[in-house]
Amino acid sequence: MDAANRGGTIAGVGRIALPPSHIPLHICRCPAVTESARPALARPAFSIHRRRALIGAAGLLAQPAMLGLLHAKPSPPAPTVWPQALQVPGGVARLSLGPAATRPVAQVRQGDVDVPLRVVGDTIEWTAIVGIPLAAAPGDAFITVLADGGGSPRLVHYAVAHKQYKEQHLKVSPRTVDLSPEDQARYERERDHQAQVMAAFTEQPGGVALPSPRMRVPVPGRRSSSFGLRRVFNGQPRNPHSGMDIAAPTGTPIVAPLPGRVIDVGDYFFNGGTVWLDHGQGLLSMYCHLSSMDVRVGDVVSLGQAFCKVGATGRVTGPHLHWGVMLNRTMVDPALFL
Ligand SMILES: [Zn+2]
Questions:
Q1: Over the stretch 203-220, which tens digit does the pLDDT of each residue have?
Q2: Could you tell me the distance, in angstroms and rounded to a whole number, from the CA of residue 244 to the centre of ligand 1?
Q3: Rounded distance, CA 314 to CA 11, Å?
Q4: How many A from CA of 28 to the centre of ligand 1?
Q5: What is the CA(65)–ligand 1 centre distance, in A?
Q6: What mean pLDDT value characterizes the chain?
Q7: Contact at 8 Å (CB) between 102 and 206?
Q8: Residue 225 CA to ligand 1 centre (angstroms)
Q9: Which residues contact 169 (CB under 8 A, 6 or more apart)?
């Protein structure tokens, strides 16, 4: 990782915040309600079958423009497991570890630390669920599976494919890019605190099967597909957007997409009002720019329980939820869990 990715001083620019890519403290000028996000907004799946029914009913079959729709690419098949596998930066690898009497212990090397991995399944087949960092280089990668009883660990390989995320260039007032020394100090304190939060790994009993973590959408609203969007402010690259923005009015209740335990509640410089949930085995989710946080650290929330509200706190352009999902301390695309 080079200096530009660590945050700090850039020649000629002064102190600016450049959080490391695995730390989701970003300048969330989330384009949930601006022009840049509009073409990329998620739309409901629209099957060919339904198109035919609609077109037929409207008597529009003779119109060439509408006929073109019939040849449109069909929607991809609905997922049957969650998260879906997508072996690209910011995606998820599902790696079979085979049968074992108890859940194997698997880990991945990130920087100079071994980070434990989520392992799901049962005695017939265990699967490691690996979050792939947005900064990962395409090519070969591997995880390590520790042997029961202290034998030599084995490596499980997988390949990371290239994915070209969109890039967004913005010219903004330098004051909003360069942090004052006070803000910079605050940001650095918060970054260290967030790194501790993100290291949460709650073990589950070894023989117990974990449910497939299909998530519920935490708040209704237009969803941007801006995960991975690379932002460049005044020519200075920032970390890619590491979550999903959902546009909703301030005060809209946000519900837990899975059962979880509250592991952090705070008000942060970039992220504003923020809550983190721990769903077990390194699967965490974060909710940012909140106007209200109706839980405390240690609280347990059930699936669908309202626990905070949409707002516009922190560095934002308007009210929306910034929703992040993390596996093995790595922000991955929340859409893979829906
Ligand atoms: Zn965002």
A1: 876 555 566 689 999 999
A2: 6
A3: 27
A4: 5
A5: 36
A6: 80
A7: yes
A8: 10
A9: 232, 235
pTM of the predicted model, to two decimals?
0.78
Give 185 Cα–ligand 1 centroid separation in angstroms: 23
- Other beta carbons within 10 Å of 167: 11
Question: What pLDDT is recorded for position 3?
Answer: 34
What is the model's pLDDT at position 206?
A: 55
Integer-rounded Cα Rg, in Å, for the chain is: 21
Ligand 1 centroid from CA 246, angstroms:
8
**Is 157 in a helix, a strand, or coil?**
strand
Neighbours of ion ligand 1 (CB under 5 A): 28, 30, 245, 322
CA of 134 to the centre of ligand 1 (A): 15
User: Tell me, what's the pLDDT at 58?
Assistant: 41
The DSSP result for 229-276, as a single string, is -EEEETTEE-PPP-SEEEE--TT-EEE-SS-EEEEEEEEETTTEEEEE
Give the per-residue pLDDT at 51: 42
pLDDT of residue 87: 98
From ligand 1's centre to the CA of 213, what distance in Å?
22
User: What domains lie within the chain, and their CATH numbers?
Assistant: 92-160 (2.60.40.1590), 167-337 (2.70.70.10)
Residue 40 is predicted with a pLDDT of 33
Distance 289 CA to ligand 1 centre (A): 9
pLDDT tens across 308-335, in order? 999 999 988 899 999 999 999 999 999 9
Q: Which amino acid is at 88?
A: V
Q: Using the mean position of ligand 1's atoms as its centre, give its distance from the Cα of residue 26 in Å.
A: 8
The answer to whether 136 and 163 have CB atoms below 8 angstroms apart is no
Ligand 1 centroid to residue 118 C-alpha, Å: 25
Q: Give the pLDDT confidence score for residue 233 in this predicted structure.
A: 84
Centre of ligand 1 from the C-alpha of residue 227, in Å: 8
Q: Residues of the chain whose pLDDT is less than 50? A: 1-27, 31-68
CA distance 294 to 291: 10
